[in-house]
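Provenance and format

Records in this collection were gathered into a single text stream. Each protein contributes a sequence line and a C-alpha coordinate line. The two records reproduced below are adjacent in the stream.
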Amino acid sequence: MGDAAAAALKTLVVDDEAMAVERMQVLLARIEGINLVGTASTGGQALRLIEALMPDLVLLDISMPGLNGIGVAEALQRLQRRPTVVFVTAFDQYAVSAFDVAAADYLLKPVDPARLRKAIDRVRELRASGAGDEAPSPYVSEFWVPYRSEIVRIDVDTIDLVEAERDYMRLHTGERSFLIHQTIKELEQKLDPAKFVRIHRSRILRRDRIRGLVHLGYGVWCVDLGDGVHHRIGRTYLSDVKTMAR
Protein backbone atom coordinates (compact mmCIF):
# COMPACT_ATOMS: atom_id res chain seq x y z
CA MET A 1 0.00 0.00 0.00
CA GLY A 2 2.79 2.41 0.95
CA ASP A 3 4.81 1.52 -2.17
CA ALA A 4 1.74 1.98 -4.39
CA ALA A 5 1.01 5.36 -2.84
CA ALA A 6 4.64 6.43 -3.28
CA ALA A 7 4.55 5.44 -6.97
CA ALA A 8 1.23 7.15 -7.66
CA LEU A 9 1.26 9.84 -10.32
CA LYS A 10 0.40 13.21 -8.80
CA THR A 11 -2.11 14.48 -11.34
CA LEU A 12 -3.62 17.88 -12.09
CA VAL A 13 -6.69 18.24 -14.34
CA VAL A 14 -7.05 21.52 -16.24
CA ASP A 15 -10.28 22.30 -18.11
CA ASP A 16 -12.60 25.30 -18.20
CA GLU A 17 -15.70 23.07 -18.47
CA ALA A 18 -16.92 21.79 -15.10
CA MET A 19 -18.60 18.75 -16.68
CA ALA A 20 -15.35 17.78 -18.41
CA VAL A 21 -13.44 18.03 -15.13
CA GLU A 22 -16.05 15.91 -13.36
CA ARG A 23 -15.95 13.22 -16.07
CA MET A 24 -12.16 13.10 -15.97
CA GLN A 25 -12.25 12.71 -12.19
CA VAL A 26 -14.58 9.72 -12.59
CA LEU A 27 -12.30 8.13 -15.22
CA LEU A 28 -9.17 8.68 -13.14
CA ALA A 29 -10.81 7.15 -10.06
CA ARG A 30 -10.98 3.87 -11.96
CA ILE A 31 -7.24 3.82 -12.66
CA GLU A 32 -4.83 2.59 -10.02
CA GLY A 33 -1.79 4.64 -9.14
CA ILE A 34 -3.34 8.07 -9.75
CA ASN A 35 -3.29 10.72 -7.04
CA LEU A 36 -5.50 13.60 -8.14
CA VAL A 37 -3.97 16.60 -6.38
CA GLY A 38 -6.14 19.34 -7.86
CA THR A 39 -8.10 20.88 -10.72
CA ALA A 40 -7.84 24.20 -12.52
CA SER A 41 -10.20 26.03 -14.86
CA THR A 42 -7.80 28.58 -16.42
CA GLY A 43 -4.26 28.59 -17.75
CA GLY A 44 -3.07 31.07 -15.15
CA GLN A 45 -4.56 29.06 -12.31
CA ALA A 46 -2.95 25.91 -13.74
CA LEU A 47 0.53 27.47 -13.69
CA ARG A 48 0.12 28.60 -10.09
CA LEU A 49 -1.06 25.16 -8.98
CA ILE A 50 1.74 23.43 -10.88
CA GLU A 51 4.29 25.59 -9.09
CA ALA A 52 2.68 24.90 -5.71
CA LEU A 53 1.76 21.23 -6.07
CA MET A 54 4.54 20.00 -8.39
CA PRO A 55 2.39 17.35 -10.13
CA ASP A 56 3.89 14.55 -12.21
CA LEU A 57 1.14 14.67 -14.81
CA VAL A 58 -1.06 17.46 -16.16
CA LEU A 59 -4.17 16.52 -18.15
CA LEU A 60 -4.53 19.76 -20.04
CA ASP A 61 -7.39 21.14 -22.12
CA ILE A 62 -6.25 23.33 -25.03
CA SER A 63 -9.16 25.61 -25.88
CA MET A 64 -9.55 27.87 -22.85
CA PRO A 65 -10.16 31.63 -22.55
CA GLY A 66 -7.05 33.68 -21.89
CA LEU A 67 -3.94 31.54 -21.65
CA ASN A 68 -4.76 28.36 -23.55
CA GLY A 69 -3.28 24.90 -23.08
CA ILE A 70 -0.52 25.38 -25.64
CA GLY A 71 0.55 28.55 -23.81
CA VAL A 72 0.60 26.68 -20.50
CA ALA A 73 2.74 23.89 -22.01
CA GLU A 74 5.17 26.42 -23.48
CA ALA A 75 5.53 28.09 -20.06
CA LEU A 76 6.20 24.71 -18.44
CA GLN A 77 9.19 24.11 -20.72
CA ARG A 78 11.05 26.85 -18.82
CA LEU A 79 10.69 25.00 -15.52
CA GLN A 80 13.57 22.96 -14.16
CA ARG A 81 11.17 20.28 -12.92
CA ARG A 82 8.54 19.85 -15.58
CA PRO A 83 5.40 17.73 -15.27
CA THR A 84 4.46 15.47 -18.15
CA VAL A 85 1.66 16.94 -20.27
CA VAL A 86 -1.18 15.05 -21.92
CA PHE A 87 -3.52 17.23 -23.94
CA VAL A 88 -7.26 16.56 -23.73
CA THR A 89 -9.30 18.45 -26.31
CA ALA A 90 -12.33 18.29 -28.56
CA PHE A 91 -10.30 19.51 -31.55
CA ASP A 92 -7.70 17.70 -33.66
CA GLN A 93 -6.21 20.81 -35.33
CA TYR A 94 -3.89 21.44 -32.39
CA ALA A 95 -1.94 18.20 -32.94
CA VAL A 96 0.91 19.99 -34.74
CA SER A 97 1.35 22.44 -31.86
CA ALA A 98 1.20 19.53 -29.40
CA PHE A 99 4.38 17.88 -30.62
CA ASP A 100 6.09 21.29 -30.73
CA VAL A 101 5.75 21.47 -26.94
CA ALA A 102 6.68 17.81 -26.40
CA ALA A 103 3.34 16.56 -25.10
CA ALA A 104 3.33 12.88 -24.11
CA ASP A 105 -0.08 12.23 -25.67
CA TYR A 106 -3.11 13.88 -27.25
CA LEU A 107 -6.59 12.68 -26.35
CA LEU A 108 -9.80 13.65 -28.12
CA LYS A 109 -13.01 14.28 -26.21
CA PRO A 110 -15.10 12.43 -25.26
CA VAL A 111 -12.16 10.57 -23.77
CA ASP A 112 -12.26 6.81 -24.19
CA PRO A 113 -11.35 5.11 -20.86
CA ALA A 114 -9.06 2.57 -22.56
CA ARG A 115 -7.30 5.34 -24.48
CA LEU A 116 -6.78 7.28 -21.23
CA ARG A 117 -5.22 4.21 -19.61
CA LYS A 118 -2.91 3.83 -22.59
CA ALA A 119 -1.84 7.47 -22.31
CA ILE A 120 -1.11 7.11 -18.59
CA ASP A 121 0.91 3.94 -19.26
CA ARG A 122 2.96 5.94 -21.76
CA VAL A 123 3.50 8.68 -19.18
CA ARG A 124 4.77 6.11 -16.69
CA GLU A 125 7.19 4.70 -19.28
CA LEU A 126 8.50 8.15 -20.19
CA ARG A 127 9.03 9.14 -16.58
CA ALA A 128 10.68 5.83 -15.73
CA SER A 129 13.12 6.29 -18.62
CA GLY A 130 13.94 9.84 -17.53
CA ALA A 131 12.68 11.30 -20.82
CA GLY A 132 12.20 15.05 -20.52
CA ASP A 133 14.91 15.49 -17.89
CA GLU A 134 17.53 16.35 -20.50
CA ALA A 135 17.64 19.53 -22.60
CA PRO A 136 15.04 19.27 -25.38
CA SER A 137 16.33 18.45 -28.86
CA PRO A 138 15.75 21.03 -31.61
CA TYR A 139 14.32 18.19 -33.71
CA VAL A 140 11.11 16.24 -33.12
CA SER A 141 11.05 12.55 -32.29
CA GLU A 142 7.36 12.01 -33.06
CA PHE A 143 4.31 13.51 -34.72
CA TRP A 144 0.66 13.47 -33.63
CA VAL A 145 -1.61 12.86 -36.61
CA PRO A 146 -5.43 12.80 -36.87
CA TYR A 147 -6.48 9.32 -37.96
CA ARG A 148 -10.11 8.19 -38.02
CA SER A 149 -11.59 9.12 -34.63
CA GLU A 150 -8.37 9.65 -32.69
CA ILE A 151 -4.90 11.15 -32.75
CA VAL A 152 -2.13 8.63 -33.37
CA ARG A 153 1.55 8.93 -32.54
CA ILE A 154 4.03 8.50 -35.39
CA ASP A 155 7.61 7.79 -34.32
CA VAL A 156 9.99 9.73 -36.57
CA ASP A 157 12.23 6.67 -36.82
CA THR A 158 9.45 4.79 -38.65
CA ILE A 159 9.10 7.40 -41.42
CA ASP A 160 10.60 6.39 -44.78
CA LEU A 161 9.35 9.15 -47.04
CA VAL A 162 7.57 12.50 -46.78
CA GLU A 163 5.65 13.83 -49.79
CA ALA A 164 3.76 17.10 -50.24
CA GLU A 165 0.07 16.95 -51.15
CA ARG A 166 -1.25 20.49 -51.56
CA ASP A 167 -1.51 21.97 -48.04
CA TYR A 168 -0.64 18.66 -46.37
CA MET A 169 2.33 16.35 -46.03
CA ARG A 170 1.99 12.59 -46.35
CA LEU A 171 4.15 10.59 -43.94
CA HIS A 172 4.94 7.13 -45.32
CA THR A 173 5.68 4.49 -42.68
CA GLY A 174 6.12 1.06 -44.24
CA GLU A 175 2.85 0.15 -45.94
CA ARG A 176 0.83 2.86 -44.19
CA SER A 177 0.69 6.62 -44.65
CA PHE A 178 -0.74 9.56 -42.72
CA LEU A 179 -1.56 13.16 -43.60
CA ILE A 180 -0.37 16.08 -41.47
CA HIS A 181 -1.21 19.75 -41.98
CA GLN A 182 2.29 21.22 -42.37
CA THR A 183 4.33 22.85 -45.12
CA ILE A 184 7.38 20.95 -46.31
CA LYS A 185 9.62 23.82 -45.17
CA GLU A 186 8.22 23.64 -41.61
CA LEU A 187 8.57 19.87 -41.57
CA GLU A 188 12.13 19.97 -42.92
CA GLN A 189 13.17 22.28 -40.07
CA LYS A 190 11.77 19.83 -37.50
CA LEU A 191 13.46 16.72 -38.90
CA ASP A 192 17.03 15.86 -37.93
CA PRO A 193 19.23 16.48 -41.02
CA ALA A 194 21.45 13.62 -39.88
CA LYS A 195 18.49 11.30 -40.55
CA PHE A 196 16.56 12.99 -43.36
CA VAL A 197 17.46 14.75 -46.60
CA ARG A 198 15.29 16.86 -48.86
CA ILE A 199 15.69 15.76 -52.48
CA HIS A 200 12.92 17.73 -54.14
CA ARG A 201 10.65 20.69 -53.46
CA SER A 202 7.91 18.19 -52.55
CA ARG A 203 9.87 15.24 -51.14
CA ILE A 204 12.02 14.33 -48.11
CA LEU A 205 13.66 10.91 -47.70
CA ARG A 206 15.12 9.01 -44.81
CA ARG A 207 18.87 8.87 -45.41
CA ASP A 208 19.40 5.24 -44.46
CA ARG A 209 16.76 4.13 -47.00
CA ILE A 210 18.85 5.46 -49.90
CA ARG A 211 20.79 2.72 -51.71
CA GLY A 212 22.33 4.86 -54.43
CA LEU A 213 21.86 7.45 -57.15
CA VAL A 214 20.84 6.79 -60.74
CA HIS A 215 21.72 9.08 -63.66
CA LEU A 216 19.02 9.01 -66.34
CA GLY A 217 20.84 11.36 -68.69
CA TYR A 218 20.33 15.00 -69.63
CA GLY A 219 21.21 16.05 -66.10
CA VAL A 220 18.36 14.04 -64.55
CA TRP A 221 19.23 12.13 -61.36
CA CYS A 222 17.10 9.90 -59.15
CA VAL A 223 17.45 8.31 -55.74
CA ASP A 224 17.37 4.50 -55.69
CA LEU A 225 15.65 3.03 -52.62
CA GLY A 226 16.52 -0.54 -53.56
CA ASP A 227 12.90 -1.57 -54.08
CA GLY A 228 12.57 -0.65 -57.73
CA VAL A 229 11.21 2.81 -56.91
CA HIS A 230 13.22 5.83 -58.05
CA HIS A 231 12.56 9.36 -56.80
CA ARG A 232 13.70 12.24 -58.95
CA ILE A 233 16.11 14.72 -57.39
CA GLY A 234 15.32 18.40 -57.92
CA ARG A 235 18.16 20.42 -59.44
CA THR A 236 18.24 22.71 -56.41
CA TYR A 237 18.97 19.74 -54.12
CA LEU A 238 21.24 17.67 -56.38
CA SER A 239 24.54 18.98 -55.03
CA ASP A 240 23.58 18.28 -51.41
CA VAL A 241 22.33 14.77 -52.23
CA LYS A 242 25.50 13.93 -54.18
CA THR A 243 27.63 15.13 -51.27
CA MET A 244 25.66 12.91 -48.89
CA ALA A 245 26.08 9.87 -51.16
CA ARG A 246 29.88 10.06 -51.33
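Adjacent record:
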Amino acid sequence: MSVLAALGTIAVAAVVVLQVLRTGGLPDPLAHGDFSSRVLDIAVLVFREGLECILVVAAVTANMIGVRQAYQRPVAAGAAGALGATLITWFVAVGIIRSLSDNVSALHLQAATGLIAIVVLLIVMNWFFHKVYWTGWISMHSRRRTQVLRETSTARVWWGLALLGFSSVYREGFEVVLFLQTYRLRLGTAPVMYGVTAGLALTAVVGVLTFVAHRRLPYRRMLVLTGVMLGMVMLVMVGEQAQEMQLANWLPTTPIATLARVIPEWMQLWFAVFPTAETLIAQALAAGLVVGSYYLAREQQERTPVAG
Protein backbone atom coordinates (compact mmCIF):
# COMPACT_ATOMS: atom_id res chain seq x y z
CA MET A 1 0.00 0.00 0.00
CA SER A 2 2.88 2.38 0.79
CA VAL A 3 4.36 1.60 -2.64
CA LEU A 4 1.05 2.52 -4.31
CA ALA A 5 0.89 5.76 -2.32
CA ALA A 6 4.44 6.62 -3.34
CA LEU A 7 3.69 5.92 -7.00
CA GLY A 8 0.58 8.09 -6.79
CA THR A 9 2.56 10.94 -5.26
CA ILE A 10 5.21 10.66 -7.97
CA ALA A 11 2.51 10.69 -10.67
CA VAL A 12 0.91 13.84 -9.26
CA ALA A 13 4.29 15.55 -8.98
CA ALA A 14 5.10 14.58 -12.59
CA VAL A 15 1.83 16.10 -13.81
CA VAL A 16 2.58 19.37 -11.98
CA VAL A 17 6.13 19.50 -13.38
CA LEU A 18 4.88 18.87 -16.92
CA GLN A 19 2.28 21.61 -16.46
CA VAL A 20 4.99 24.06 -15.35
CA LEU A 21 7.23 23.16 -18.32
CA ARG A 22 4.37 23.38 -20.82
CA THR A 23 2.74 26.61 -19.65
CA GLY A 24 5.50 28.27 -17.68
CA GLY A 25 3.51 28.33 -14.48
CA LEU A 26 1.48 26.35 -11.96
CA PRO A 27 -2.01 25.11 -12.87
CA ASP A 28 -4.82 27.62 -12.49
CA PRO A 29 -7.19 26.29 -9.79
CA LEU A 30 -10.08 28.08 -11.50
CA ALA A 31 -9.50 26.51 -14.92
CA HIS A 32 -12.20 23.87 -15.45
CA GLY A 33 -12.54 23.79 -11.67
CA ASP A 34 -16.17 22.80 -11.43
CA PHE A 35 -15.81 20.09 -14.07
CA SER A 36 -12.62 18.56 -12.65
CA SER A 37 -13.66 18.72 -9.02
CA ARG A 38 -17.07 17.15 -9.60
CA VAL A 39 -15.61 14.37 -11.76
CA LEU A 40 -13.28 13.61 -8.85
CA ASP A 41 -16.21 13.64 -6.41
CA ILE A 42 -18.14 11.16 -8.55
CA ALA A 43 -15.10 8.90 -8.94
CA VAL A 44 -14.58 8.82 -5.16
CA LEU A 45 -18.21 7.88 -4.49
CA VAL A 46 -18.29 5.15 -7.16
CA PHE A 47 -15.01 3.71 -5.90
CA ARG A 48 -16.23 3.74 -2.29
CA GLU A 49 -19.43 1.91 -3.19
CA GLY A 50 -17.50 -0.45 -5.46
CA LEU A 51 -15.14 -1.25 -2.60
CA GLU A 52 -18.07 -2.19 -0.39
CA CYS A 53 -19.46 -4.41 -3.16
CA ILE A 54 -16.12 -6.22 -3.35
CA LEU A 55 -16.09 -6.78 0.41
CA VAL A 56 -19.60 -8.27 0.42
CA VAL A 57 -18.90 -10.52 -2.58
CA ALA A 58 -15.59 -11.56 -1.00
CA ALA A 59 -17.49 -12.52 2.17
CA VAL A 60 -19.97 -14.58 0.15
CA THR A 61 -17.24 -16.44 -1.78
CA ALA A 62 -14.81 -16.77 1.15
CA ASN A 63 -15.13 -20.56 1.55
CA MET A 64 -15.70 -21.39 -2.11
CA ILE A 65 -12.40 -23.15 -2.73
CA GLY A 66 -11.47 -26.58 -3.99
CA VAL A 67 -14.52 -28.53 -5.12
CA ARG A 68 -16.73 -25.56 -4.22
CA GLN A 69 -14.87 -23.15 -6.50
CA ALA A 70 -17.48 -23.66 -9.21
CA TYR A 71 -20.02 -21.94 -6.94
CA GLN A 72 -18.21 -18.65 -7.57
CA ARG A 73 -19.66 -18.61 -11.10
CA PRO A 74 -23.33 -18.01 -10.15
CA VAL A 75 -22.23 -15.34 -7.66
CA ALA A 76 -20.26 -13.62 -10.43
CA ALA A 77 -23.22 -13.98 -12.81
CA GLY A 78 -25.52 -12.39 -10.24
CA ALA A 79 -23.08 -9.51 -9.71
CA ALA A 80 -22.87 -8.98 -13.49
CA GLY A 81 -26.68 -9.00 -13.65
CA ALA A 82 -26.74 -6.35 -10.92
CA LEU A 83 -24.49 -4.11 -13.04
CA GLY A 84 -26.95 -4.47 -15.92
CA ALA A 85 -29.88 -3.75 -13.59
CA THR A 86 -28.07 -0.67 -12.30
CA LEU A 87 -27.69 0.58 -15.87
CA ILE A 88 -31.41 0.04 -16.47
CA THR A 89 -32.19 1.87 -13.22
CA TRP A 90 -30.09 4.80 -14.49
CA PHE A 91 -32.21 5.13 -17.64
CA VAL A 92 -35.43 4.75 -15.64
CA ALA A 93 -34.34 7.50 -13.23
CA VAL A 94 -33.34 9.76 -16.13
CA GLY A 95 -36.72 9.15 -17.78
CA ILE A 96 -38.64 9.96 -14.59
CA ILE A 97 -36.69 13.18 -14.05
CA ARG A 98 -37.20 14.22 -17.67
CA SER A 99 -40.94 13.69 -17.34
CA LEU A 100 -40.95 15.79 -14.20
CA SER A 101 -38.98 18.56 -15.91
CA ASP A 102 -42.01 19.32 -18.10
CA ASN A 103 -43.96 20.51 -15.04
CA VAL A 104 -41.22 21.63 -12.63
CA SER A 105 -38.70 24.43 -13.13
CA ALA A 106 -35.04 23.47 -13.51
CA LEU A 107 -34.01 25.11 -10.23
CA HIS A 108 -36.72 23.36 -8.23
CA LEU A 109 -35.92 20.02 -9.86
CA GLN A 110 -32.21 20.41 -9.14
CA ALA A 111 -32.94 21.32 -5.54
CA ALA A 112 -35.25 18.32 -5.11
CA THR A 113 -32.84 15.77 -6.64
CA GLY A 114 -30.02 17.34 -4.66
CA LEU A 115 -31.89 16.65 -1.43
CA ILE A 116 -32.21 12.99 -2.40
CA ALA A 117 -28.48 12.87 -3.15
CA ILE A 118 -27.67 14.42 0.23
CA VAL A 119 -29.83 11.85 2.03
CA VAL A 120 -28.06 9.02 0.16
CA LEU A 121 -24.64 10.46 0.94
CA LEU A 122 -25.44 11.00 4.62
CA ILE A 123 -26.53 7.35 4.84
CA VAL A 124 -23.31 6.24 3.14
CA MET A 125 -21.28 8.40 5.56
CA ASN A 126 -23.23 7.43 8.68
CA TRP A 127 -20.86 5.41 10.86
CA PHE A 128 -23.67 4.09 13.06
CA PHE A 129 -25.51 2.87 9.98
CA HIS A 130 -22.36 1.19 8.73
CA LYS A 131 -21.87 -0.63 12.01
CA VAL A 132 -25.32 -2.12 11.48
CA TYR A 133 -24.40 -2.66 7.82
CA TRP A 134 -21.24 -4.63 8.48
CA THR A 135 -22.66 -6.69 11.34
CA GLY A 136 -26.06 -7.19 9.74
CA TRP A 137 -25.95 -6.96 5.96
CA ILE A 138 -22.71 -8.88 5.43
CA SER A 139 -23.41 -11.49 8.08
CA MET A 140 -26.89 -11.96 6.60
CA HIS A 141 -25.30 -12.73 3.23
CA SER A 142 -22.91 -15.19 4.88
CA ARG A 143 -25.76 -16.95 6.67
CA ARG A 144 -27.81 -17.01 3.49
CA ARG A 145 -24.85 -18.52 1.60
CA THR A 146 -24.62 -21.31 4.18
CA GLN A 147 -28.35 -22.03 3.84
CA VAL A 148 -28.18 -22.06 0.05
CA LEU A 149 -25.25 -24.49 -0.02
CA ARG A 150 -27.27 -26.94 2.10
CA GLU A 151 -29.87 -27.27 -0.65
CA THR A 152 -30.00 -30.65 -2.36
CA SER A 153 -31.10 -29.24 -5.71
CA THR A 154 -28.22 -27.95 -7.85
CA ALA A 155 -30.53 -25.49 -9.63
CA ARG A 156 -31.72 -24.00 -6.31
CA VAL A 157 -28.11 -23.63 -5.16
CA TRP A 158 -27.08 -21.81 -8.31
CA TRP A 159 -30.13 -19.52 -8.31
CA GLY A 160 -29.68 -18.76 -4.62
CA LEU A 161 -26.00 -17.87 -5.09
CA ALA A 162 -26.85 -15.75 -8.13
CA LEU A 163 -29.39 -13.80 -6.07
CA LEU A 164 -26.76 -13.27 -3.37
CA GLY A 165 -24.34 -11.89 -5.95
CA PHE A 166 -27.09 -9.69 -7.38
CA SER A 167 -28.17 -8.20 -4.03
CA SER A 168 -24.55 -7.64 -2.99
CA VAL A 169 -23.97 -5.29 -5.93
CA TYR A 170 -27.36 -3.81 -6.84
CA ARG A 171 -27.92 -2.26 -3.43
CA GLU A 172 -24.84 -0.07 -3.88
CA GLY A 173 -25.61 0.54 -7.56
CA PHE A 174 -29.09 1.82 -6.73
CA GLU A 175 -27.62 4.30 -4.24
CA VAL A 176 -25.10 5.54 -6.79
CA VAL A 177 -27.80 6.06 -9.44
CA LEU A 178 -29.86 8.21 -7.08
CA PHE A 179 -26.81 10.17 -6.04
CA LEU A 180 -25.66 10.92 -9.59
CA GLN A 181 -28.91 12.44 -10.81
CA THR A 182 -28.20 15.83 -9.27
CA TYR A 183 -24.78 15.91 -10.95
CA ARG A 184 -26.34 14.98 -14.28
CA LEU A 185 -28.81 17.85 -14.02
CA ARG A 186 -26.10 20.33 -13.08
CA LEU A 187 -23.22 19.24 -15.32
CA GLY A 188 -24.71 17.01 -18.01
CA THR A 189 -24.12 13.35 -18.76
CA ALA A 190 -20.50 13.51 -20.00
CA PRO A 191 -18.82 14.57 -16.69
CA VAL A 192 -20.86 11.95 -14.83
CA MET A 193 -19.65 9.26 -17.22
CA TYR A 194 -16.02 10.40 -16.77
CA GLY A 195 -16.33 10.13 -13.00
CA VAL A 196 -18.13 6.78 -13.13
CA THR A 197 -15.50 5.39 -15.52
CA ALA A 198 -12.66 6.48 -13.23
CA GLY A 199 -14.39 5.03 -10.16
CA LEU A 200 -15.14 1.74 -11.91
CA ALA A 201 -11.54 1.51 -13.14
CA LEU A 202 -10.25 1.80 -9.57
CA THR A 203 -12.84 -0.74 -8.42
CA ALA A 204 -11.78 -3.12 -11.18
CA VAL A 205 -8.14 -2.90 -10.05
CA VAL A 206 -9.10 -3.81 -6.48
CA GLY A 207 -11.41 -6.54 -7.76
CA VAL A 208 -8.68 -8.11 -9.87
CA LEU A 209 -6.23 -8.02 -6.95
CA THR A 210 -8.85 -9.58 -4.67
CA PHE A 211 -10.41 -12.30 -6.82
CA VAL A 212 -7.77 -13.02 -9.46
CA ALA A 213 -4.45 -12.32 -7.76
CA HIS A 214 -5.86 -13.33 -4.33
CA ARG A 215 -4.04 -10.45 -2.66
CA ARG A 216 -4.87 -9.55 0.93
CA LEU A 217 -5.45 -5.81 0.73
CA PRO A 218 -5.74 -3.41 3.72
CA TYR A 219 -9.49 -3.00 3.26
CA ARG A 220 -10.03 -1.32 6.61
CA ARG A 221 -7.47 1.39 5.82
CA MET A 222 -8.89 1.78 2.34
CA LEU A 223 -12.39 2.25 3.76
CA VAL A 224 -11.13 4.84 6.23
CA LEU A 225 -9.22 6.69 3.50
CA THR A 226 -12.14 6.69 1.08
CA GLY A 227 -14.42 7.62 3.98
CA VAL A 228 -12.38 10.74 4.66
CA MET A 229 -12.41 11.62 0.96
CA LEU A 230 -16.15 11.00 0.81
CA GLY A 231 -16.54 13.29 3.81
CA MET A 232 -15.08 16.09 1.70
CA VAL A 233 -17.47 15.19 -1.11
CA MET A 234 -20.36 15.35 1.33
CA LEU A 235 -19.41 18.84 2.51
CA VAL A 236 -19.15 20.00 -1.10
CA MET A 237 -22.53 18.48 -1.93
CA VAL A 238 -24.20 20.04 1.10
CA GLY A 239 -22.74 23.47 0.29
CA GLU A 240 -23.88 23.27 -3.33
CA GLN A 241 -27.29 21.96 -2.31
CA ALA A 242 -27.84 24.80 0.14
CA GLN A 243 -26.85 27.30 -2.57
CA GLU A 244 -29.27 25.69 -5.05
CA MET A 245 -32.05 25.89 -2.46
CA GLN A 246 -31.23 29.57 -2.05
CA LEU A 247 -31.47 30.10 -5.83
CA ALA A 248 -34.83 28.29 -5.83
CA ASN A 249 -35.97 30.47 -2.89
CA TRP A 250 -36.29 27.45 -0.64
CA LEU A 251 -33.79 29.02 1.77
CA PRO A 252 -33.01 32.65 2.59
CA THR A 253 -29.62 34.12 1.68
CA THR A 254 -27.64 35.87 4.40
CA PRO A 255 -24.29 37.06 3.04
CA ILE A 256 -21.33 37.36 5.42
CA ALA A 257 -19.32 40.30 4.12
CA THR A 258 -16.22 39.51 6.19
CA LEU A 259 -15.94 36.00 4.78
CA ALA A 260 -16.68 37.22 1.24
CA ARG A 261 -13.40 39.13 1.32
CA VAL A 262 -11.47 36.14 2.73
CA ILE A 263 -12.79 33.10 0.83
CA PRO A 264 -11.13 32.93 -2.61
CA GLU A 265 -13.14 32.03 -5.70
CA TRP A 266 -11.32 28.72 -6.21
CA MET A 267 -12.47 27.52 -2.79
CA GLN A 268 -16.05 28.22 -3.78
CA LEU A 269 -15.56 26.24 -7.00
CA TRP A 270 -13.70 23.25 -5.57
CA PHE A 271 -15.04 23.01 -2.02
CA ALA A 272 -18.40 24.85 -2.22
CA VAL A 273 -17.44 27.11 0.69
CA PHE A 274 -19.72 30.10 0.12
CA PRO A 275 -19.80 33.24 2.29
CA THR A 276 -23.43 32.84 3.39
CA ALA A 277 -24.73 31.82 6.79
CA GLU A 278 -27.12 29.16 5.44
CA THR A 279 -24.54 27.22 3.41
CA LEU A 280 -21.98 27.23 6.21
CA ILE A 281 -24.55 26.17 8.82
CA ALA A 282 -25.76 23.35 6.56
CA GLN A 283 -22.20 22.07 6.13
CA ALA A 284 -21.56 22.30 9.87
CA LEU A 285 -24.74 20.34 10.63
CA ALA A 286 -23.84 17.63 8.09
CA ALA A 287 -20.33 17.31 9.50
CA GLY A 288 -21.74 17.18 13.03
CA LEU A 289 -24.15 14.39 12.04
CA VAL A 290 -21.36 12.25 10.57
CA VAL A 291 -18.95 12.84 13.45
CA GLY A 292 -21.74 12.28 15.98
CA SER A 293 -22.74 9.00 14.36
CA TYR A 294 -19.10 7.89 14.50
CA TYR A 295 -18.87 8.46 18.27
CA LEU A 296 -22.31 6.90 18.78
CA ALA A 297 -21.19 3.76 16.92
CA ARG A 298 -17.94 3.63 18.88
CA GLU A 299 -19.77 4.07 22.19
CA GLN A 300 -22.16 1.26 21.35
CA GLN A 301 -19.23 -0.95 20.37
CA GLU A 302 -17.54 -0.30 23.72
CA ARG A 303 -20.75 -1.15 25.56
CA THR A 304 -21.33 -4.38 23.62
CA PRO A 305 -19.81 -7.30 25.59
CA VAL A 306 -17.21 -9.34 23.73
CA ALA A 307 -18.34 -12.95 23.19
CA GLY A 308 -16.25 -15.70 24.69
